UniProtKB/TrEMBL annotation, chain A:
UniProt-listed GO biological process terms: auxin-activated signaling pathway; pollen maturation
Record-linked CDD domains: F-box_AtTIR1-like (cd22159)
Localisation per UniProt entry: Nucleus
Domain F-box: 4-45
Pfam families referenced in this protein's UniProt entry, alphabetically: F-box_5 (PF18511), LRR_6 (PF13516), Transp_inhibit (PF18791)
Record protein name field: F-box domain-containing protein
Keywords: Auxin signaling pathway, Developmental protein, Nucleus, Ubl conjugation pathway
Automatic annotation (TrEMBL), chain B:
Biased composition (Basic and acidic residues): 45-57
Family of the protein in this entry: Belongs to the Aux/IAA family.
Subcellular location: Nucleus
InterPro entries reported in the protein's UniProt record: AUX/IAA_dom, AUX_IAA, PB1-like
Signal peptide range: none
Keyword Nucleotide-binding: no
Chain positions covered by the region annotation Disordered: 21-69
Every PB1 domain range: 94-181
Protein name (Swiss-Prot/TrEMBL): Auxin-responsive protein
GO cellular-component term (any): nucleus
UniProt-listed SUPFAM superfamilies: CAD & PB1 domains
Quaternary state and interactors: Homodimers and heterodimers.
Source organism of the structure: Brassica campestris
An individual GO BP term: auxin-activated signaling pathway
Length: 575, 191
C-alpha cells in the first residue's frame, strides 16, 4: 500500500466521498490518516458541540465544505427553549481567521445572525453555496450581505427557517453583473418580495436550476418567471390566491409547457385548485412532488394531478388525500421511494382522513418504497404485519398515531406485534419512530431485530426501565435516541455508561430520570456533556433538599471531545 | 375500560406537562400551551407578532377538548401554522376576512375574533403591512396618516374602521381595505 507515492493515494481517496468511508480510511494507518486529513474536502459535524472550530481546523486544514448541526431534533417541536445554543458565529469567526477556502456551508437547527452572514460573505472569496435548514436568528439584511458580497454564489437555499423579513430589498443586492445563480429558495420568507428585482435576477441566471418562491409571488409573476427560465428543474410555486385571472392562468400554461426539464414541484402555499391543472402537461416527468402545504386544495384535485405522475419517486402530501387517494397513488406511482403524509387535523379525534388501509395499499402497490412518514388516527397490528410483508426494504419507517397510547383499534391490543413485524422484516432499517399503545415488548423486538437501527424516536411508550435497556443493549449501531413521556428512569440510564460513547446523543424529556441519576452519570462519564434543561429558573434544583430524587424535565447528553460548552444559557445546567 | 385507561393517561400527562406560562396562572398557562402548540416561533414565550395571533385563533373544537400536549403531534411549527389557519377557516371557526392594502401585490386574511378591540386590530394590521395610521379620534378620524383602514359591511357599503362599536363591526365586516394616498384623504384626515 505504501509503495505508491502520496499523490497517487490521494487521487484514489478522491473517489471516496462518503463521510463514513473517509473516516474508515483515516483509521487504516498513520500515513493514510495524514493523507486523508489534508485531502478531506467535505466535513460533516453532526453535533456542533462535539468538537470546536480550533480542533476542526487542526485536523482538516484544507476543507471546502462544512456541514454543522446544532439543536437536537426535538427542538423542531418546541421542546428546546429559545437561547439553548447552536450558535454559528464562533465557527465563522474561526474559519475567517484561518486560511480555509470555504465554498459551502450547510447548517441545520443553528442560530445564525446577520453579523454571521455578513462575516461569511466577506471572508471567503470563492464562497458558492449556503444551505440553511430550520435555522433562526437572522433577517433579510443578512441575506442582503450574501447577495452583495458573494460574487461566485451558486446556491442560496433557505428551508423552513425563521427569518425576520424586513421586506424585499435583498434581492436587488445581487449585482447586475452577477449571473451564476443555480439554486434560489426563499419560500420561507413571509414578507413582500421585490418582483422586479426577482424577475431581472432570474432573467440573467442561465444556470438556474432550482427556484422556490414565497407566498408573495403571485400567479402572473410566476408565469413571467417561468418564461424566463424554461430550463428549470425544481420549482417551488408561491401564491395562486385571489384575482382569478384567466389570462394569467393561460400565460402560466404556455410557460409551463416549455419547461421540459421540470422534475420537482413544491410550494402551493395558497393555491387555488383551478390552476393546478396547468401543471398536468409536465406531470409525466415529475420525480418529486410536495403538496404538503396545499391545505386549500381538495383531495380530488390532488388526485387528478397525481394520476398523471407515473414517474414519481418522492411524494409529500396531506392526509386530506384520504385512503382512496392513497390507493390512486399506489396504482399510479410504481417508482415511489419516499412518501410523507402529514396531518391536517392536529387535534386528533376528527375525521379519519387516512387509516391503516391507506398504508397497506401503498405498501402493496409501491415495491420500491423505502422511506415513509405517516400521520394517522388509527392503526392495527394486522395492517403493520401486512406492510412488513409487502415492504421488507424500509430504511426509514416513521409512524405517528396522533393520539398517544392509542391501541390497535380493532383488537384493543398494544401495537407491539405490528412494529415487531416491521423491525423483523426490514433488515436495513436505519430510522424508526414508534407510536400508539406500546409496552416493553416492542423494545424487546427492536433490540433483537433492528441491528442496523441508527435513530429511534419514542413517545408515550413502554412500561419499565427494561424497555430502554432492550434498546441500549440490542441496537449496536444506535446513534441518536430520543425519548419523551415514557417511564424510563435512572436504572436504564446508568446501566451501560460506555454505550453513550458510541452514540451521538440521547434526549429524554418527561421521563423518570432523576437529578441524582444524572449526576452519577456525569461523574462516571466525563467525556459526556450531560445537560439538564430547566425552564423555570427559580426552580434551582441544587437547593432543593430532595435533589437526589427530583425528576429531571429534560435531559440531553452527547459525547464530546471538547468538554463543557461555554455558551450555555442560565436555564441549561451542565453537570 | 379502554377509554378510562386512556383518560387516566391524559390526567397523568397533564401533571408532567410543560407550561411556559408563569407558575400559578392557570388560565395563562392554558393559553400559553395552546400558543406553544400552534406557535410559529419557539423563540418567544409570549407571542407578540401578528403571525402568532393569527394562528392561535380561538380554536373551540367541536369534540371534547383534549389536553394540548407541548410538542405533540410532532409537526414542525412552520407546518403547524399553515395547517391550523386553514383548518379554522374551513370549519367556520373564527371570522376570517380578507385584508387588502392599496399597492400591495397580495392580500392577507385575518381572524377578527382574535382581537378584543380596535387598537389591537390596528396594531396587527400595521405590523402586517408595515404602515402606521396614528390614532383614531372622533372628530378627525385618522389624523395625519397616509393610510386609512376601511371595511365593506353587510350592505356592501365601504365604511371607516372605528366608527361603530367593536361588536357591531365584527359582525358586519365582510372585508378590509387599507386605502392609501389621495383616495384616503377624503375620508380620514379631516382636511
Amino acid at each position: 500500500m505504501n509503495y505508491f507515492p502520496d499523490e497517487v493515494i490521494e487521487h484514489v481517496f478522491d473517489f471516496v466521498t462518503s463521510h463514513k468511508d473517509r473516516h474508515s480510511i483515516s483509521l487504516v494507518c498513520k500515513s493514510w490518516f495524514k493523507i486523508e486529513r489534508y485531502s478531506r474536502q467535505n466535513v460533516f459535524i453532526g453535533n456542533c458541540y462535539a468538537i470546536n472550530p480550533e480542533r476542526l481546523l487542526r485536523r482538516f486544514p484544507c476543507f471546502k465544505s462544512l456541514t454543522l448541526k446544532g439543536k437536537p431534533h426535538f427542538a423542531d417541536f418546541n421542546l428546546v427553549p429559545h437561547g439553548w445554543g447552536g450558535f454559528v458565529q464562533p465557527w465563522i469567526e474561526a474559519l475567517a481567521r484561518s486560511r480555509v477556502g470555504l465554498e459551502e456551508l450547510r447548517l441545520k437547527r443553528m442560530v445564525v445572525t446577520d453579523e454571521s452572514l455578513e462575516l461569511l460573505s466577506r471572508s471567503f472569496v470563492n464562497f458558492k453555496s449556503l444551505v440553511l435548514v430550520s435555522c433562526e436568528g437572522f433577517s433579510t439584511d443578512g441575506l442582503a450581505s450574501i447577495a452583495s458580497n458573494c460574487r461566485h454564489l451558486q446556491d442560496l437555499d433557505l428551508q423552513e427557517n425563521e427569518i425576520d423579513d424586513h421586506r424585499g430589498q435583498w434581492l436587488s443586492c445581487f449585482p447586475e453583473t452577477y449571473t451564476s445563480l443555480v439554486t434560489l429558495n426563499f419560500a420561507c420568507l413571509e414578507g413582500e418580495t421585490n418582483l422586479v428585482a426577482l424577475e431581472r435576477l432570474v432573467a440573467r441566471s442561465p444556470n438556474l436550476r432550482s427556484l422556490k418562491l414565497n407566498r408573495a409571488v403571485p400567479l402572473d409573476a410566476l408565469a413571467r418567471l417561468m418564461a424566463c427560465a424554461p430550463q428549470i428543474v425544481d420549482l417551488g410555486v408561491g401564491s395562486y390566491e385571489d384575482e382569478q385571472d384567466s389570462e394569467s392562468c393561460l400565460k402560466l400554461q404556455a410557460a409551463i409547457r416549455k419547461c421540459t426539464s421540470l422534475r420537482s414541484l413544491s410550494g402551493f402555499l395558497e393555491a387555488a385548485p383551478h390552476c393546478l391543472s396547468a401543471f398536468h402537461p409536465v406531470c409525466h416527468n415529475l420525480t418529486s412532488l410536495n403538496l404538503s402545504y396545499a391545505a386549500e386544495i381538495h383531495g380530488s384535485h390532488l388526485i387528478k394531478l397525481i394520476e398523471h405522475c407515473k414517474k414519481l419517486q418522492r411524494l409529500w402530501i396531506l392526509d386530506s388525500i384520504g385512503d382512496k387517494g392513497l390507493e390512486v397513488v399506489a396504482s399510479t406511482c410504481k417508482e415511489l421511494q419516499e412518501l410523507r403524509v402529514f396531518p391536517t387535523d392536529l387535534q386528533g379525534g376528527g375525521n379519519t382522513a387516512v387509516t391503516e388501509d391507506g398504508l397497506v395499499a401503498i405498501s402493496a402497490g409501491c415495491p420500491k418504497l423505502h422511506s415513509i412518514l405517516y400521520f394517522c388516527q388509527q392503526m392495527t397490528n394486522a395492517a403493520l404485519i401486512t406492510v412488513a410483508k409487502n415492504c421488507p426494504n424500509f430504511i426509514r419507517f416513521r409512524l405517528c398515531i396522533l393520539e398517544p397510547h392509542k391501541p390497535d383499534h380493532v383488537t384493543s391490543q398494544p401495537l407491539d406485534e405490528g412494529f415487531g413485524a416491521i423491525v423483523q422484516a426490514c433488515k436495513n432499517l436505519k430510522r424508526l419512530s414508534v407510536s400508539g399503545l406500546l409496552t416493553d415488548q416492542v423494545f424487546l423486538y427492536i433490540g433483537m431485530y433492528a441491528t442496523e437501527l441508527e435513530m429511534l424516536s419514542i413517545a408515550f411508550a413502554g412500561d419499565t426501565d427494561k424497555g430502554m435497556l432492550y434498546v441500549l443493549n440490542g441496537c449496536k449501531k444506535m446513534r441518536k435516541l430520543e425519548i419523551r413521556d415514557s417511564p424510563f428512569g435512572d436504572a436504564a440510564l446508568l446501566a451501560d455508561v460506555n454505550k453513550y460513547e458510541t452514540m451521538r446523543s440521547l434526549w429524554m424529556s418527561s421521563c423518570e430520570v432523576t437529578l441524582g441519576g444524572c449526576k452519577r452519570l456525569a461523574r462516571k462519564a466525563p467525556w459526556l456533556n450531560v445537560e439538564i434543561i430547566n425552564e423555570n429558573d427559580n426552580n434551582r434544583m441544587e437547593e432543593n433538599g430532595y435533589e437526589g430524587r427530583q425528576k429531571v424535565d429534560k435531559l440531553y447528553l452527547y459525547r464530546t471531545v471538547v468538554g463543557t460548552r461555554v455558551d450555555a444559557p442560565p436555564f441549561v445546567w451542565i453537570l | 375500560m379502554e377509554n378510562v385507561g386512556v383518560c387516566d393517561e391524559f390526567v397523568n400527562l397533564k401533571a408532567t406537562e410543560l407550561r411556559l406560562g408563569l407558575p400559578g396562572t392557570e388560565d395563562g398557562g392554558e393559553e400559553e400551551r395552546q400558543k406553544v402548540s400552534c406557535c410559529k416561533s419557539n423563540k418567544r414565550a409570549f407571542p407578540e407578532t401578528e403571525k402568532d395571533i393569527e394562528s392561535t385563533g380561538k380554536t373551540k373544537p367541536a369534540s371534547p377538548p383534549k389536553a394540548q400536549i407541548v410538542g405533540w403531534p410532532p409537526v414542525r411549527s412552520y407546518r403547524k401554522n399553515n395547517i391550523q389557519t386553514k383548518k379554522n377557516e374551513s370549519e367556520g371557526q373564527g371570522m376570517y376576512v380578507k385584508v387588502s392594502m392599496d399597492g400591495a401585490p397580495y392580500l392577507r386574511k385575518i381572524d377578527l375574533t382574535v382581537y378584543k378591540q380596535y387598537p389591537e386590530l390596528m396594531k396587527s394590521l400595521e405590523n402586517m403591512f408595515k404602515f402606521s395610521v396614528g390614532e383614531y379620534c372622533e372628530r378627525e378620524r385618522y389624523k395625519g396618516s397616509e393610510f386609512v383602514p376601511t371595511y365593506e359591511d353587510k350592505d356592501g357599503d365601504w365604511m371607516l374602521v372605528g366608527d361603530v362599536p367593536w361588536e357591531m363591526f365584527v359582525s358586519s365586516c365582510k372585508r378590509l381595505r387599507i386605502m392609501k394616498g389621495s383616495e384616503a384623504k377624503g375620508l380620514g384626515c379631516g382636511v
